[in-house]
Design brief:
With 300 residues, the chain is an alpha/beta fold. It has ten helices and eleven strands. The strands form three sheets. It has a five-stranded parallel β-sheet with strand order 2-1-3-4-5, sandwiched between helices. Strands 7-6-8-9 form a four-stranded parallel β-sheet, with helices on both faces. Strand 6, helix 8 and strand 7 form a beta-alpha-beta unit. The two termini are 23 Å apart. Keywords: Repeat. This is SIS domain-containing protein.
Length: 300
């Protein structure tokens, strides 16, 4: 079994632990009313998007999400939350250093505490039980999101039950042979749709895209047709399923909690990698953390 296959299969247990830990970290996570930004890189950025939308939906306060490299340093926030599995990514460390100089409180949610992030963040939430050996993130990302979801009261045991169902139920037949994948989301699940597409690209080198569900009609549907799949994570606007089926594409209407639907996509990414004889633990051109030195990109 690949590292990524093992890690995606252990997500339900990690989510349970994160939800149990959330109350103990209440003081270092955004408080109701705080103007908050959540940042990350790659997968962590998409989790930040989902977490920001969940916090606003819960009425907890204005919340923005940014890639760490694009954080608007002219804006003032009461708190910044950085999601960083490795704790070594250059853009995150650079941003945290700047926030410390500016006196803006920053909390890092990290998988490995023995990293430079510990000296730059004001506060830490360590999810070392969800850390991963794989390059492709699954377990840490969804566990960090679960922590933030539980923190705003948007997590229930039903989410974990849906995750277990996502691991146990067979995938829709024939998806592994498809050549193009589009994922749709609404509200907080837009970030999950972007993450679903990223997983398909990283693990299986698939052509994969993601859009807010209503935006899909405004151009992207033009590339849908026989041989492609459109998968909805979250509520489906009326008429989209019929439009997709009319193109000859496969339609997957996600009926589980959107985060559990992402687990199904994780499984699909690994399955497609297997069909294409790819190693999901060694994705092309990627490694676990991006570190920039002397203007050039070094990775580890």
């Amino acid at each position: 079994m690949s590292h990524v296959a093992y890690e995606l299969a252990t997500q339900p247990e990690s989510w349970e632990r994160a939800a149990e830990l959330a109350p103990a970290h209440r003081a270092v996570l955004p408080r109701p009313g705080e103007r908050t930004a959540i940042v990350g890189c790659g997968t962590s950025y998409y989790m930040a998007q989902a977490a920001a939308a969940l916090r606003e939906e819960a009425g907890q306060g204005e919340t923005d999400a940014f890639p760490a490299s694009e954080f608007p340093r002219h804006r003032r926030y009461d708190r910044v939350v950085a999601l960083t599995r490795s704790g070594t990514t250059t853009e995150v460390l650079d941003l945290l250093s700047g926030l410390r100089e500016a006196g803006i409180p920053a909390t890092a949610v990290v998988g490995d505490p023995a990293t430079p992030v510990t000296t730059l963040a004001n506060e830490l939430v360590v999810l070392d039980f969800a850390d991963e050996r794989s390059v492709v993130q699954t377990r840490f990302a969804t566990t960090a999101l679960t922590l933030l979801r539980a923190h705003v009261g948007a997590h229930t045991p039903a989410v974990v039950a849906d995750a277990r169902a996502a691991l146990a139920e067979p995938l829709p037949a024939g998806l592994e042979a498809r050549g193009q994948f589009t994922f749709l989301g609404r509200g907080w699940s837009v970030g999950l749709a972007h993450e679903a597409a990223l997983k398909m690209r990283e693990a299986s080198l698939s052509w994969a895209e993601a859009y807010p569900a209503m935006e899909y009609r405004h151009g992207p549907v033009s590339v849908t047709g026989p041989g492609s799949v459109t998968w909805s994570l979250g509520g489906t606007p009326a008429g989209i399923a019929e439009q997709v089926l009319g193109t000859g594409a496969e339609w997957v209407d996600g009926t589980l909690d959107p985060l559990a639907e992402l687990v199904r996509v994780h499984r699909l990414a690994v399955a497609v990698a297997g069909v294409r004889q790819l190693d999901p633990d060694a994705p092309r051109n990627l490694t676990r953390s991006v570190i920039l030195t002397s203007g050039e990109e070094a990775v580890r």
